[in-house]
Amino acid sequence: MTPDKLAYMANQIATAFARLPDDEAEAAIAAHIDQFWDPRMRARLLSLAESPNTGLSDRARGAAALIRRPETA
Amino acid sequence: MKDFILPDADFGTPARRSDKTVTLTIDGMDVTVPEGTSVMRAAAMAGIEIPKLCATDSLEPIGSCRLCMVEIEGRRGTPASCTTPAADGMEVHTQTPKLAKLRRGVMELYISDHPLDCLTCAANGDCQLQDMAGAVGLREVRYTPGANHFQTRQNGEANPRFEAKDTSNPYFTYDPAKCIACFRCVRACEEVQGTFALTVEGRGFEARIASGTSDFLNSDCVSCGACVQACPTATLQENAVIEHGTPDRAIVTTCAYCGVGCSLRAEMKGDRLIRMVPWKDGKANRGHSCVKGRFAFGYAAHPDRIRNPMIRETIDQPWREVSWDEALAFTAQRLRAIQAESGTGAIGGITSSRCTNEETFLVQKLIRQVFGNNNVDTCARVCHSPTGYGLKTTFGTSAGTQDFDSVEAADVVLVIGANPTDGHPVFASRLKKRLRQGAKLIVADPRRIDLVKGPHVQAAHHLALRPGTNVALLTAMAHVIVTEGLTDSAFITERCDAEAFADWAAFVSEEHLSPEATEALTGVPADQVRQAARLYATGGNAAIYYGLGVTEHSQGSTTVMAIANLAMATGNIGRPGVGVNPLRGQNNVQGSCDMGSFPHELPGYRHVHDAEARGVFERLWNVTISDEPGLRIPNMLDAAVDGSFRGLYVQGEDILQSDPDTKHVAAGLAAMDCVIVHDLFLNETANYAHVFLPGSSFLEKDGTFTNAERRLNRVRRVMAPMTGLADWEVTMALANAMGAGWDYAHPSEIMDEIAATTPSFAGVSYDLLEREGSVQWPCNAAAPLGTPVMHEAGFVRGKGLFVITDYVPTDERTGPRFPLLLTTGRILSQYNVGAQTRRTANTAWHGEDRLEIHPHDAETRGIAEGDWVRLASRSGETSLRATLTDRVSPGVVYTTFHHPETQANVVTSDYSDWATNCPEYKVTAVQVALSNGPSDWQEDYAAQARAARRILPAAE
Ligand code: SF4
Ligand code: SF4
Ligand code: SF4
Ligand code: FES
Question: Which CATH number is associated with domain B21-143?
């Protein structure tokens, strides 16, 4: 998975919850990613969230803090 | 015809439904029947068969042959029993000397214009004319042939009334010389199929049947076979029967093509399948079928079928045929080696929507129990995964809400992003029947599909929206319904989440979502949207049927939720005649989803996070089930390119041809170290495979398919597997080669395991299916015979949830380089990637994929009908020939994807649904220009495919 594509997917999810207030939206994004993304995708996303300028939207980046940590990354 | 050899009782006229019954006496026997039942049917119900020729119970009677006359006490004359309704106290005599004489006279007239070549006739022993001649005791024909239709020459000259056989249709022959002008074929084409391809020309003795002004192949005929089925003589006869003779036994099974799931009788002679005939008692199809199920089964015996397992070290080598043991040992060893090097999660599999529930269950079990991960996905990813997400969020279950019978009670039908006459033909016939009775139709589709205007059917509204604007259109309809006060507040208050409704109602009422404000976006005139919304909300029972034109978008899941919102807002859920009905593509796509084919869901749609559900399988299978979601197909391919995913077992799917962005799929497959393809043919994916396991066709195995109405139908083995093993046995052998120790003796045992682990299937067993024919899940203690209509008393999730559906335009935009929008679909005679149908005579109707383009767009590009054009997008380009038509709007082009040479998916983009990664097949920005022929990619691809398909001669 290229980082661009992962960021794109996370941002797409964030857009779908655009109508919610920040905290609810971030929780919804994180819950969605926990439910549907395999651990290696989540691990990559988490590392993307740690570095600046990786194309993640603010809310997707905010959601990263709430995402379930994969056991083996 | 043909119900005689292998009888499926013909009651002569259709059943009538009525609360009132009447009692009459027929030949001294008392019979009680629903009011409106014909005397003929009443007699048949009492076991008394009245001679008949023009009546059959799939058609309304017309009383033309007069063979069925009876005498009724107190009535003069001899009324036709097929058109006479039974009445209380009637006393009917079906056999009297007077009737016998009259009937013989009728038969004598028929026979005088019919050739007497019974012994060499294809319908010999299976002809109702023959049977009736016997039944009425016809012993002589006193007329010498005068004017007739069967002699080629008369008085030394050509007989002007004689017409030659029409053999243009590849599957059946029309021989006018044998026609008795009963018009059963004409009526079948109208009443059952709804195509109106046949007409009667001339009157009385001169009356003849005609397929319009041309032969059958070039007429409007869609080759459904209903007329052949209805014909009592050899006039319309299957070619297979002409060639091989009449079948001698029949086994009821289920069509393996589309999600309608028609029940068919496989009529056999020895182990040769002679013909498939729709089964009258099939609850999905009620005795009808389409050209695919009825005729296109020849692929199962096609010489291209691979009969032996094959392996190769690398994909540039030719294939080597090996024994099952060697192939399985090779596979097991490779897969385990990959896991040892790259981790448990480095392999996975794809279940098939073509295979049975039992086979799918085993593949996901192989992955979860033996591979030890959740890397299982299915082709539903590329079609209805948004339905799963959308309906689960709003209603609590991804299930479609109705059975097909429900359409008979619908008053308004909204068809969106589906083309039923091509994709789900038997459902379309049932829908058209309802429309002819007066139900109203709204079609939302970029293309003018056949339903918009056809014989005796016309849509009240065709909302020809721009591809990719479904959400904007549906939300505009919701805007009208809410702002004009057309909601069903009683339903909403009682059944739905109040807070969510309030939020949603406020949202859709926003002015910028009105039809007027979104007209520029969707291209649909605001007034039409308003009228359609009013009709949907106030026209009585309103049902929505939708297809892949809804799901295959970057907002697929959002669109499904917008549909669910509309149904809830208008109270159109939870009773016959209404509902939200996803038209599922493949025969068992519903089943493959139900059986836990998704990387985040165990069988029965239970998330892998659900410890209790995991526990059920952990105890039975003696392993720990991973609580982490696995990779979805597109993610698998991405991970393969990264090197973290290296082995894939693909059962009965051709992802290289069916999935978007072919180059990306090819790169993913090429990067893997062990691709196992389990299929009937060396499909396109197999070009990248290391192991090929030959599959078995649906005729060669037992199992069940679940159709779009959640109905489990039995698939029955009618012949032995060509390769020695049914697909479920192959999966079991692979599991055992990896140390699993499975020992299923029959698919019924797999179903028992499904029932034991999955609450919604708890009541299902092969015994139940034998008894009931079929059941719709949920089938359990609460619903022992299944559930035709969902959410009757309340939503599965408790309160229905309205979800806000913001329109987000796709990032696939048109621009100066790619100014046109491409959308894709399929046609009646071919099936998806075409692996089956391309190997049948169905190619008579669709030899190649064509690009439909509006004449304006064609003109500005100098393109004429039939020209080769280059179709290019940001992802790639391909070439195909153009057809000019105003079915598509200016700015929109359309093609099918049935032929590998075309590779339309070279062009489709990598964008996908935000929630499910379902690819955005339905919108691609493209440019079209004249070209000279196939593109470089097509030629390279063909060369690679040829090389990859080499098979070494078997070593002695
Ligand atoms: S095959 Fe079907 S469509 Fe064709 S003429 Fe017969 S009934 Fe009509
Ligand atoms: S073709 Fe067959 S069904 Fe049609 S009118 Fe002739 S005999 Fe009857
Ligand atoms: S409608 Fe579908 S299930 Fe029925 S015969 Fe045709 S392809 Fe088969
Ligand atoms: S069967 Fe009744 S008139 Fe022909």
Answer: 3.10.20.740
